[in-house]
Design brief:
375 residues, six-stranded mixed sheet, 14 strands, OB fold (Dihydrolipoamide Acetyltransferase, E2P), globular, three-stranded antiparallel sheet, 37% helix, alpha+beta
């Protein structure tokens, strides 16, 4: 939300004063929520797979979380919320500047030499905060929406040291590195490590995420998918013929994978990254066949047996070819392995959903024209 322009009208000032009192109350509730969210699942068995009925064991705590966070969400969405919450300060390239955090990983500069600049914070990602669109494990979309909003709140309440060299992302946003904020959000389980390529995330952030997963904090309380689905793009969005993909981010080290497809998604449809269960013997058999397959000999030849087996294992489970294979060869090998899958070489078991996301076109995420499932 854009910050409001100050007005001298007494009625507006009165509304703002009321909002500030409301904001103080919400801060107290949100801090209680944060403490609860950090520790509510410490008693649970620590495992990486879906937690089954674990959610039932903490319904009283979840009720407290939902109540406090819902009140905070009410503030964030109120007509006068800009008067009470969004204005924060960061130290950007050594200068204290006023900003407004749009969510936990982006802000807009409100004053100074960079006034008006939109910033994307690098190294990590928070969930989408425009609506309840993420789901995995036993989390509901609404619960993860609360987590996204609380990441925004946590970013707003601190004063963080940040730096930028002025480089921008594909959306024209200035890339900014705020190491303390990034580590704090990741360690609390309010964000996850992200890079936009093959490289792993910052080692400190990766370690902080491992700790958060082990402790079952925040996002990881009710399941840890192998990949988080962070963006969806329907086929009609491909305006230049370069193809369409959804972004998957590894929860192990933060590297990204492009899930390429030609699907057209209906508004508010739920799209899931499907996980296939394939036994070790089948993977070994396919790896052996691939090694002997002349059609992909030039792609497979540089891979040692261990790397080849990982390529086959990853495709068997996730239906994509990852960074072990050169970028220019991934599409060709993916198509070839898809032929293996169609022929039943990986078995015929039914896949299960990993991370899911609800598709909403960018133009339908905000304002009065929002999609029905966001209202």
């Amino acid at each position: 939300m854009m910050p409001a322009v100050p007005s001298p009208e007494t009625s507006v000032e009165g509304a703002r004063a009321s909002d500030r009192r409301h904001a103080t109350s919400m801060r107290v509730q949100a801090e209680a929520w944060e403490s609860t969210a950090m520790h509510m699942d410490d008693h649970r068995p620590r495992r990486r797979t879906r937690p089954g009925l674990g959610l039932l064991a903490c319904l009283p705590a979840m009720a407290l979380v939902t109540a406090a966070a819902s009140a905070a969400l009410g503030l964030l969405g109120s007509p006068h919320a800009d008067a009470g919450e969004p204005r924060s300060k960061v130290i950007l390239n050594g200068k204290l500047v006023q900003v407004t955090f749009n969510d936990g990983d982006s802000f807009r500069v409100l004053a100074g030499d960079m006034q008006g600049a939109k910033a994307r914070l690098s190294g990590y990602n928070t969930l989408e905060s425009y609506g309840p669109v993420h789901q995995w494990g036993t989390w509901t979309e609404k619960e993860l929406y609360v987590m996204a909003k609380m990441a925004t709140y946590h970013a707003r309440k601190g004063v963080w040291e940040c730096e930028t060299d002025g480089a921008t992302d594909t959306y024209g946003r200035m890339l900014v590195w705020c190491p303390d904020l990034a580590e704090d959000l990741v360690r609390r389980g309010m964000a996850h490590v992200l890079t936009v390529g093959d490289e792993p995330g910052d080692p400190k952030l990766v370690e902080a995420q491992r700790e958060a997963i082990e402790a079952r904090r925040g996002l990881w309380s009710h399941g840890v998918p192998d990949f988080i689905l962070t963006s969806l793009h329907s086929a009609e969005e491909d305006s230049d013929g370069s193809g369409t993909y959804n972004r998957l981010v590894s929860t192990e080290d933060g590297h990204s994978v492009k899930w390429k497809h030609q699907n057209r998604y209906v508004e508010c449809s739920k799209v899931c990254h499907m996980i296939h269960d394939v036994d070790a013997a089948t993977i070994d058999e396919v790896a052996k066949a691939l090694r002997e397959d002349s059609a992909v000999a030039t792609i497979v030849e540089p891979l040692d047996d261990q790397a080849l087996r990982k390529v086959v294992s990853d495709f068997a489970r996730f239906r994509h070819v990852d960074r072990e294979v050169a970028k220019d060869d991934r599409d060709a090998l993916t198509r070839h392995l898809q032929g293996y899958a169609a022929a039943g070489r990986f078995g015929n078991g039914q896949p299960e959903p990993g991370a899911c996301m609800v598709h909403i076109d960018f133009k339908r995420r905000f304002g009065t024209g929002r999609a029905a499932c966001l209202k």
